[in-house]
Amino acid sequence: MNAHAAGDLQAIAAEWPAQGEAGGFWIAYHIGSEFYGETDARFEDNGRYVLWSTVTQGRERLEFSGRLDPDEVRGLVELVTRERLWTVRHVRPTQADDDAPAFLEAGDGVRRARVELWVSEAGSVPEFARVQEAVLDLIRRVSDGAILEVGR
Questions:
Q1: Domain map (residue ranges) of the chain
Q2: Which helix (H) or strand (E) holds 135?
Q3: At what angle do helices 70-82 and 3-14 cross, to 10 degrees?
Q4: What would the DSSP string read from start to end of 5-71?
Q5: Which of these, 60, 84, 122, 143, has the minimum number of CB atoms within 10 Å of its CB?
Q6: Mind listing the pLDDT tens digit for each residue in 45-96?
Q7: Is the dihedral of CA 112, 134, 13, 68 positive or negative?
């Protein structure tokens, strides 16, 4: 991730709409690959969400959409801010051939910024791991436990 994208993540999080407002902001998470299984989620500032995963019983692709309390989505953004996620960098100098990406991305309709690690690094970076766990808790809850992703 370049420094410009990192700064954008910080700015997007800082400008997230106040309680009761919506402004086209979103936060997204993705982990995995077609070979190992993938999980993808997008949460909007108005509470809408869309997610899918192949990390399920029998590796069947399941899709979910609905609406959460916008405060729950705001809580993820506040965690990104507390963890200063925009400061996260790769731990390993190179990506292994079979190492899939794990990323958190945010946007506001004009800008988008991403923090990306490789799956093998995700648990080794405490700031990323804490945000990832909060996102995965939300994913497991809205899927009634059908999505089995643990962040590897």
A1: 3-142
A2: helix 126-142
A3: 130
A4: HHHHHHHHHHTPPPTT---S-EEEEEEEETTTEEEEEEEETTSEEEEEES-BGGG--EEEEEE--HH
A5: 60
A6: 999 999 999 999 999 999 999 999 999 999 999 999 999 999 999 998 889 8
A7: positive
